[in-house]
Specification:
369 residues, mainly alpha, elongated
């Protein structure tokens, strides 16, 4: 490579590092046209492909990696970069196939192990994900991001203590890692340590004020503490940053219900359903608001939808039973309570609901006193 081309390549990499992505693409494009050596031209295509990944233009990224691999079929980095493009497009199986090839060509490619782990994690294959993260950390024990994603995998397996330990290690390596604070905060939420969770999310949003998920999860911690006003404020920030976050609208709706502001609760659930009509939990949340407004038939209709989407939701059956009881359909109430009990032993062991339904049925038929 001539000194002029070396300088162009250095400029392109520096521009990409400084997030001047359009200019980086232009320089990589110039390199593609000037390079005569096939391997170096492949490197230029791969560099431009990596820049397209950062620009979230995954189709162009994949196309550039295809060209790189046509020129150099043994380029592990090109397989790894193309795998990233496929992963971000949601084609996790193809991403794993490309990561496999990258690792085959370069068994010490720590980033490929880490990123393949992310693909497995997205497929909820957490054990394989953790195995890959372990290998990545064996190869590069200073990779803070690998600790964070392994912590997330442990959290997904409800191993909260290991999740926290991994995030602690990540923060030792990089005290400015907002993602580590977010994952550790989530582990603290599930452990019921809401104050620590709120503190971690506070650090996360200070480091990255545009992180909608951090606000949403801090809202969950505030909600769990009964601080519904603060939860509503955080969910409001989350949906402002990410207007497509159906769960944040649903959870703000639950917070409004907790404050007995049922009309706003219903409006938020309406928006959540518009964004994600397949979320059973949102229909249950709206059903709760309708029940609280004594709109029992509307509540039943929402619980019907929740149960259709998730037939194993014991709480939805129990709540539908309560709504049927309020409109004096005691047979249906009793049947729903029984179904709830068959799905959740905690409800089965609580015979009070069934007793009330049976008693009301008896009174309605003239057998009660």
């Amino acid at each position: 490579m001539s000194k002029d081309l070396e300088e162009l390549y250095r400029q392109a990499v520096l521009l990409r590092q400084n997030n001047k992505l359009d200019k980086a693409v232009a320089v990589f494009t110039k390199l593609v046209s000037l390079e005569k050596d096939p391997r170096r031209k492949a490197t230029a295509y791969n560099g431009r492909g990596g820049t397209y990944v950062l620009k979230e233009d995954y189709d162009r990224a994949i196309a550039d990696c295809d060209k790189a691999l046509d020129l150099n079929p043994h380029d592990a980095d090109a397989y790894g970069m193309r795998a990233l493009g496929y992963r971000y497009k949601g084609d996790y199986d193809q991403a794993i196939t490309d990561f496999d090839k990258a690792i085959e060509l370069n068994p010490t490619h720590a980033a490929a192990y880490r990123d393949r782990g992310l693909a497995y994690g997205t497929k909820r294959d957490y054990d394989r994900a953790i195995t890959d993260y372990n290998k990545a950390l064996d190869l590069n024990p200073h990779d803070a991001a690998a600790y964070v994603v392994r912590g997330l995998a442990y959290q997904s397996k409800r191993d909260h203590d290991r999740a926290i330990a991994d995030c602690d290690k990540a923060l030792d390596l990089n005290p400015h890692d907002a993602a580590a604070y977010c994952v550790r905060g989530l582990a603290y939420v599930f452990k019921g340590d809401y104050d620590r969770a709120i503190a971690d999310y506070g650090k996360a949003v200070k480091l990255n004020p545009q992180d909608a998920a951090a606000y949403a999860n801090r809202g969950l911690a505030h909600f769990s503490k009964g601080a519904y006003g603060r939860a509503i404020a955080d969910y409001g920030k989350a949906v402002k940053l990410n207007p497509h976050d159906a769960a944040a609208y649903r959870n703000r709706g639950l917070a409004y219900s907790a404050k007995e502001d049922y009309d706003r609760a219903i409006a938020d659930c309406d928006k959540a359903i518009e964004l994600d009509p397949q979320d059973a939990a949102t229909y249950s949340a709206r059903g709760l608001a309708y029940f609280s407004k004594r709109a029992y038939k509307r509540a039943i209709a929402d619980y019907d939808k929740a149960i259709k989407l998730n037939p194993h939701d014991a709480a939805a059956y129990a709540n539908r039973g309560a709504a049927y009881g309020m409109i004096k359909k005691y047979d249906l109430a009793l049947d729903n309570y029984s179904r709830a009990g068959s799905l959740d032993n905690r409800l089965k062991s609580n015979n009070a609901l069934v007793y009330i339904a049976s008693s009301l049925k008896g009174i309605a038929s003239g057998r009660g006193k």
